[in-house]
Amino acid sequence: MRKTAVIYIAFCISLGLGLLVFLSIRDFNYLSATLGRRVADIIPGILFLSALAAIAESQSFAIDENKALSIAFAISFSALIIYGLAAAAWVAFCTVFFSVVDFGRGYKEHVFNTPLYKTLMNASNYIISVLAVGFVYKQLGGSFLIELPFPEKSGQFGTIIIYFGQKMLPILTGLVVYVLVNNLMIMFYFLAMSGAKPNSLREWLRIFQWSVLSMILIGLLGIVLAAIYWAFGILSVILFFGPFLMFRYAYAGFTSIQKGYIDTIKAFSAALEAKDPYTIGHARRVEKYCEIIASEMNLSSNRTKVLKYASLLHDIGKIGIRESILNKPDELNDDETLEIQKHPIIGAQMLGNIQFLKREVKLIRAHHVYYDGSGYPEDAVDEAQLLETQILCVADSFDAMTSDRAYRPAMSMEEAIDELLRYSGTQFAPEVVTAFIRGLNKRKNREEFQDIFK
Description:
Elements (H helix, E strand, L loop, with lengths): L2 H31 L5 H20 L2 E4 L2 E3 L2 H12 L1 H14 L2 E2 L5 E2 L6 H24 L17 H10 L1 H27 L6 H32 L1 H42 L6 H15 L4 H13 L9 H4 L7 H7 L2 H9 L6 H9 L14 H4 L2 H15 L11 H10 L7 H14 L11
Antiparallel strand pairs: 1-2, 3-4
Helix pairs in contact: 1-4, 1-5, 1-7, 2-3, 2-4, 3-4, 3-5, 3-8, 4-5, 5-7, 6-8, 7-8, 8-9, 10-11, 10-17, 10-19, 11-15, 11-17, 14-15, 15-17
């Protein structure tokens, strides 16, 4: 591990656990000495919220390949606005230490199979981020329920909601600060671990915006949860969470179907690689290049996903081409060239009846039609006008140029870039070429991209 990573992790863990201990002493003393509350009376509530948060975190689910959703923060936020900073810190700590999470890596991660420093780092990040919300909330005039004249289990749900509605500015500001602190700590962690340069500001802002929106919605859920808990008690909270668990399992079924789709795509790609040795690694590299361009052009996650699947399957039609042509050791004659030019049409026909690949099929059919309308097939000009098709065309062409063939050696990356620039505006969309070259220059020294630049 890099020295900077060791220092950063040690600092974050010391700060997070130090705040946990300090606030426990300060706040619990404040509850008993100033508010006349016995600590023993609130511990059951904190334990309940901690257990609920750990369960909620264990039920988190992916909403796409780069984002996951958990409502555990809603419970930590509830603990914050009910009992204060120390309680929220303990709920955050327990959320990380006692959750069992499936990240789709083939096993479930928990404290016993995760390096201790990672668990402590995650817990500290969560503690510091939640405490940042509480600090901003208090500084802007907010109060915790335990400080207010609302008796527990009094049924004053509406009154509590009205109070928090009046404190919406401190709440929303605190939630934005939570996302900012959390994202920055994670970003600095990966920078310290890898030494790589940060992603583009635009990419980071896109993640930040999505996180702010999701945290505001989850924070509002936390307010409702806190009001239910304080007004009606623990049983009402359990009943309140029932529908969310039902939704989670329904969504899990949906994501399982999606995973089956992705496995189907991978099976198609593997079948092609088994028939055509040239395609081994080609689809994966084209996928990477498409991701680079999509990131530089600020495409949405949905459009990027379509590009990803289309890049993996763009040559699937070669399954219908004779192996003698695919594996010919020298250049193709005219008849053989005409036959291999059928592969975009064959691929589109093969996948045309698969409902979830409708958008990808358009790209696959037209990925050999150039920016100026030349190329093949001739009747795919409309599909070729799509930005995603032009991205796939550039990525596919670049990898073809930088790959060895039996009848010619591979070009260097610099030579291939020169070719892209030479034909920019004719074969290739200029804005796509510009974005690709910019993205390559940013990433060519990153460790995770070294294999595609060899």
